[in-house]
Design goal:
Helix content is 36%, strand content 17%. By secondary structure, the protein is α/β, with parallel strands linked by helices. The longest helix is centred in the last third of the chain and has 25 residues, at 273-297.
Length: 307
């Protein structure tokens, strides 16, 4: 009797000890990584020009914001002072330096509601085309250029610098922000090994297959089946250029460009594109800012901070 009572107590202890939450948290700029390169200097980060031909205003805004946030983190790491981004956007809009275009999800709400009903695949494809069309942006600025890009003259640069008492004006362009399949030949160890026993021990497929293809494995002819079956490996490609201009003269102090391609290292890694793009953007911006610190201030980032 005592044995069962102790067993019940142990089981309850294990059950209730597992209750609670799991928290994953990260501080983008840790105290140990901060430097004093930009001490007593102010940098104003402007929205990046978007040359990725993405006409969806919501996606373009989110992409620009994510790139901008990473650039902000790196300037904070280097010890620069920065004005609040919303204050910068407001100043640019008030002085007609940028145009503000709002995205209204209500215009596609009814179409998205219909997408949840039991329409045929052809009908859903047509509805999706209308949704994509409604969410696209097709407008030009006064110079006839794409509204997601905007050129600045020297007077505008000086005006921005004077308003925020800045030393530097930081600008850039998003050249590439694409998802694709990894073209390398490293698909075996990246997609993993998943054994399938089909019709006995003689019929074994090794690799990664999509769920919808599992049922067809048993119908494969043993003389024609492949020994290895590999899955697709996603890849995020980000290409950025950053300019740093003197806020008093408008002269370019530094510029450079980088191209980053990120794929899962193995089949245990996160395959979600948002995580791949997050890694790619962080790596691209960090590399560029390390080059800026070295070129302008002759400051080399310690190896442990670059990992």
């Amino acid at each position: 009797m005592k044995f069962w009572r102790h067993l019940l107590i142990c089981a309850l202890a294990v059950t209730f000890s597992g209750c609670g939450t799991t928290v994953n948290q990260s501080l983008k700029v840790s105290p140990a990584s901060r430097t004093q390169v930009g001490q007593d200097r102010i940098a104003v980060i402007l929205p990046f020009a978007d040359y990725t031909h993405a006409n969806n205003i919501e996606l373009a805004f989110r992409r620009n914001m994510f790139v901008n946030e990473n650039v902000t983190d790196q300037f904070v790491r280097l010890g620069f002072s920065l004005p609040v981004q919303e204050d910068v956007f407001r100043f640019l809009a008030q002085h007609n330096i940028i145009n503000v275009a709002a995205y209204n999800p209500q215009i596609t709400k009814s179409l998205e509601y219909e997408m949840g009903k039991e329409w045929s695949p052809a009908m859903k494809e047509t509805l999706q085309e209308y949704i994509d069309y409604a969410q696209q942006v097709d407008f030009k600025n006064d110079d006839g250029d794409d509204a997601l890009t905007h050129g600045l003259n020297g007077q505008e640069i000086v005006k921005i610098g004077r308003h925020f008492s800045a030393d530097y004006i930081v600008r850039g362009r998003i050249i590439q922000y694409n998802d694709r399949l990894d073209p390398s030949g490293a698909r075996f160890w990246k997609t993993g090994v998943l054994p399938f026993v089909v019709g006995g021990t003689k019929h074994i497929l090794v690799g990664k297959a999509l769920p919808q293809s599992y049922d067809s494995l048993s119908s494969l002819d043993s003389d024609k089946q492949s020994i290895l079956s590999f899955g697709d490996v996603p890849q995020a490609v980000v290409q950025l250029r950053i300019w740093v201009q003197d806020a008093y003269t408008g002269n370019v102090v530094w510029t450079n460009r980088t191209n980053v391609q990120v794929s899962p290292q193995s089949f245990f890694a996160d395959y979600q594109y948002d995580n791949l793009f997050e890694t790619a953007v962080e790596q691209a911006v960090t590399t560029l800012m390390d080059d800026f610190a070295y070129t302008v201030y002759n400051f080399s980032v310690p190896v442990e901070q670059t990992k």
